[in-house]
Design goal:
Helix content is 35%, strand content 22%. It is an alpha/beta fold and 179 residues long. It has one domain: HybD-like (Rossmann fold, 3-Layer(aba) Sandwich). The protein has a 5-stranded mixed β-sheet with strand order 3-1-4-6-5. The radius of gyration is 15 Å and the shape is globular.
Length: 179
């Protein structure tokens, strides 16, 4: 289960935030990845895994409690569907100029406000995946669904660089069988 919208970040200082709308196909990618991480991995030291849904400005109090934040979301641009990219720090605001969702509006403002207040995280990263379709659908498109292992590997690699060890508690084949 995802953590509530209150920073428990004093524990570890690291937030992994899944963003998106599960009702709009590929827009729900961040939440699908978050659920897979919650179900299949253990993190040492522990980190906070939060379902940010489609929150925008509501994320401001949450973000204030962390030194490092990793976000996972569908992200627009000129990449083919399913393409995975890692964007860091100031480049994230530029990437959010292409608005795929209403939460991108608030997210860009949250990052600007944190900078203005001098309360931004030391490190900020966004793993984005180019969507194929964002329409009423509970399932991810095949190309975006196939990108999930790559997104998870990128997240685990970044977290390792941040001093967090991750251990798989469930074989990848278990996910394929349950999809």
């Amino acid at each position: 289960m995802s953590a509530p919208f209150e920073p428990a970040g004093a524990r570890s200082g690291i937030l992994l935030l899944g963003l998106g709308n599960l009702l709009l196909g590929d827009e729900g990618l961040g939440i699908h990845v978050l659920r897979r991480l919650e179900a299949g991995y253990r993190f040492e030291p522990s980190i906070d895994l939060v379902d940010g849904g489609t929150a925008g400005l509501e994320l401001l109090p949450l973000f204030r409690g962390y030194g490092r934040i990793l976000m996972i979301d569908a992200l627009g641009g000129d990449q083919p569907p399913g393409a995975v990219g890692l964007i860091r720090n100031d480049d994230i605001r530029r990437a959010l100029e292409v608005k795929l969702s209403l939460h991108h509006l608030g997210l860009a403002e949250v990052l600007a406000l944190l900078d203005l207040l001098g309360e931004g995280p030391v490190e900020l990263a966004l793993i984005g995946v180019a969507p194929a379709r964002m329409e009423l659908d509970l399932d991810l498109s095949p190309g975006v669904a196939a990108s999930i292992p790559t997104v998870i590997a990128a997240a685990r690699s970044l977290l390792t660089n941040w001093g967090v060890r991750s251990t798989s508690t469930r074989p990848e084949s278990a996910y394929v069988a349950s999809q």
